[in-house]
Amino acid sequence: MFLRIDHIGIACHDLEAKIEQFTTLFELEVVTREVNEEQGVKEAMLRVAGDSYIQLLEPLSADSPVGKFLAKRGEGVHHVAFGVPDVTDAMEVIGSRGVRLLDEQPRHGSMGSSIAFLHPKDVGGMLTELVQAAKP
Amino acid sequence: MFLRIDHIGIACHDLEAKIEQFTTLFELEVVTREVNEEQGVKEAMLRVAGDSYIQLLEPLSADSPVGKFLAKRGEGVHHVAFGVPDVTDAMEVIGSRGVRLLDEQPRHGSMGSSIAFLHPKDVGGMLTELVQAAKP
Description:
Two copies of one chain form a homodimer. The first copy, chain A, has one domain (4-132): 2,3-Dihydroxybiphenyl 1,2-Dioxygenase, domain 1 (Roll). Chain A is globular, with a radius of gyration of 14 Å. In chain A, a hairpin with a 4-residue loop joins strand 2 and strand 3 (41-49). Chain A is built from three helices and eight strands. Chain A has helices at residues 15-26, 65-73, 87-96; strands spanning 4-11, 29-36, 41-49, 52-59, 76-83, 107-108, 114-118, 128-132.
C-alpha cells in the first residue's frame, strides 16, 4: 500500500529561519517553496533522499490548523506522509477499515500532489497524510 | 549526509495491539520485535518500503523516556530517524554546528544499528535520531 515515507511535516514559527537551519545542519537541498492558502501555510520541501522530504510549515494565521498546533504544542513534528499509488483508492481501502478520513476527497498538496489526511486518533496519535505524487 | 528517512518512532501503550492495528490498516510487514533494556522499551519495526520503517515503542516502565512521553503527550510520534553512512562522523559534524548531542557515543539501536539522538530543541522541536545500519 505504501511506496515510501514521503515526508515529515514540521511546524515552525519562521520558515526562512528554519530553512536556513536545516539546510546548514544537515546539508539538505530546498526543492520547492509554496504557499497553500487552502491549508493556511507557507512551506518548503527539503529533499532527504530520493522522494523523501522534510516539509517545513509556517502558518499563514494563528487560527489555521498549523497555527493552532504551534500554540498548543510548539515547534515539532506536525504530521507524517506516506506515498501511495492512488490516493482515492487508498482512502477507500483505509476508510473501509474504520479509519476516519479528514478529507472527503483528495486535496492539493506540495509539488502538484494529491493528498488526504487520516484522523490521528485512529492511527496511533499520528496525524497521517496519504500522498499521490504528481505525474512526471 | 542523510541516506534516507530510516524510521518514524511512535510511542504506544500496547505494542501488540498497535502492531495488529498497523499491519491490518496499512498492510505492513513486521520485520523485527526487540526489547531494548538500555532505552527502556519493547519495540517492533514495520517495513514501509525499502529501508524505511515505522517503529512502534512500548515503554518497559513509566519512568523511562518513552513512558514519560506517553504520560505527557499521549500516543503519537516520539522521534524521527535518518540513516547516515557513519554515525560517529555524523555526530561530530552536526555537533560542530552547534546541535547538542544526547549521546556522547553511539548506542545500540534496532536490528544491530548504531544510533545517537540529537536534542529536539536544536532541531526544530523534533527528537532526531541518527542511524547507521548494521553491516549486512
